[in-house]
């Protein structure tokens, strides 16, 4: 952990240099990743620290997005609210709606809390199409980023830096928040709200406030999103946005500070890379979530932190070695799995079916190779690699277990 | 005799058909250490739940410093100067021992909705936590997770958290259950020390502790207080012997 500040500095340096390092399309993805990271961090405060699992965080992201677009139109990026400060509007809107929603939802905990957040978000989603003046109907509300403070905000670079500054600032604020009395009480709320009451705390007010702070940062993320695309549409209120932030945060590790951010960024990156390559990205996202929850229940970052903290009997180098071997084996299995999924997806698609005539099954092109669907070759290749990868993982695990036993 | 600091007047509590507390009357004098004894299931913990706001009594009054607190919420009762520990350990398992105590101490300093100060800079609070840690002999476990403490260490932490708010009236529900002989002795000494200038109501099964610690003892049998008196009076009370002390007194 002593390298943490250095690592942080390095990350920030890379982020600042990014526009000169990557292509425009990748920089665009980076903007999305930053927004997803901030949104997940906002969610992580509520879910990871206060133990309140919200299934409706799209609502606060969404109101932030709409508020920023309306403010952009109203102020023209000048006067009291120049373009760089517009995310404040998203934050304020998130905060106010979070206070309201938090007041009702934190009257309950656990499943009931989750259900109320879900219901409130669905309510807003159902209302939105009917409130044309606010949500703009099917077309949504659009706007233009105006220059301010001598910055044009027309180029992708400007948008990237705007998003970067706000994301880093907000994550920094969230970090500081976790070190304040209210931030610490969030942990108390998660660990034992009953005991907090007997220590004299108003747990409902605490829950409401923490909910509101979380919604505020979600609102900032929403504002950054609508400023990026210069529009907001009520699809941002859809439940899959709420679901994605839950999945991303858990994949990253909801209880470690930067876990949600890394989960959000990594999954958005995967989504960006694979959306051109595959039509079943959501399937992969689901599989990744299930696998992470089964084998790394603390999330990717959570597990990493845990390994670093207690490297176990093998020592750091040993742990690194076995981890790399496991990863390599998993990569083989993953390649086999992806091959099978993609092959099946093509095989089962309507287009392919239409091409089948009189019992002639045309070849399927996958990974720049033509495969005959009725031969054993593609199936053997996919299942073979998948099986090989799994076998390798099992072997590595056995060796580690044997070594441990020998030591004991 | 001065006015009671805590007074139960004709308190009843029933859960549906089950009458658990039946017409309990009890006056606790300021500054005394008062023990409640009685067989398992007599309703001792329920009595504590009623005094601390966990349950509202079905009937009757509970006066703390002369005001009725019956039916108030736990946090409100705590703010009026009454703190309690639990028979079943009730701590914050997933955070450090230090954090457990800090959460408990912060309330006394009115640090609840404060998001502009860093906990690391709360010098008074952190110093008080350190002092508490020394008292409950958990200084060397300060940065362990509370869930990793042994059972008796968790019992000590439970007591520490109860003390943290600097209450006038302390309710301890079987604080020494599960402790070794040495730990029990130490904890009895600690309780004696920390309740100096406060009022203590304690439920405890270790009769050695009860009779040496308490100024007065009340005996609860089937939800009724059948006797209240000094340790000598209780030892000599025929009804108590028959109902509860039985062979133990013999
Ligand atoms: N919430 C409750 N609902 C119903 N019965 C309860 C409840 N709490 C306690 N009781 C019953 O009240 C009786 C007294 O319990 P308790 O106060 O825990 O006794 P003690 O602490 O003296 O051992 C027991 O018979 C118990 O089953
Ligand atoms: Mg009991």
From TrEMBL, chain A:
Superkingdom of the source species: Bacteria
GO cellular component: plasma membrane
Any matching Pfam family: BPD_transp_2
Alphabetized UniProt keyword annotations: Cell membrane, Membrane, Transmembrane, Transmembrane helix
Segments traversing the membrane: 29-48, 55-73, 85-104, 111-128, 159-177, 198-224, 244-270, 282-301, 376-396
GO MF assignments: branched-chain amino acid transmembrane transporter activity
Cellular location(s): Cell membrane
Matches recorded under InterPro entries: ABC_transp_permease, LivM-like
Membrane topology: Multi-pass membrane protein
CDD domains: TM_PBP1_LivM_like (cd06581)
Chief localisation class: membrane
Annotated protein name in UniProt: Amino acid/amide ABC transporter membrane protein 2, HAAT family
Source species of the chain: Salipiger pallidus
From TrEMBL, chain B:
InterPro entries: AAA+_ATPase, ABC_AA/LPS_Transport, ABC_transporter-like_ATP-bd, BCA_ABC_TP_C, P-loop_NTPase
Keyword ATP-binding: yes
Gene Ontology CC annotation, any one: plasma membrane
One of the record's GO molecular function terms: ATP hydrolysis activity
Taxonomic superkingdom: Bacteria
Keywords: ATP-binding, Nucleotide-binding, Transport
Pfam family, one: ABC_tran
Residue span(s) of domain ABC transporter: 6-247
Protein name in UniProt: ABC transporter domain-containing protein
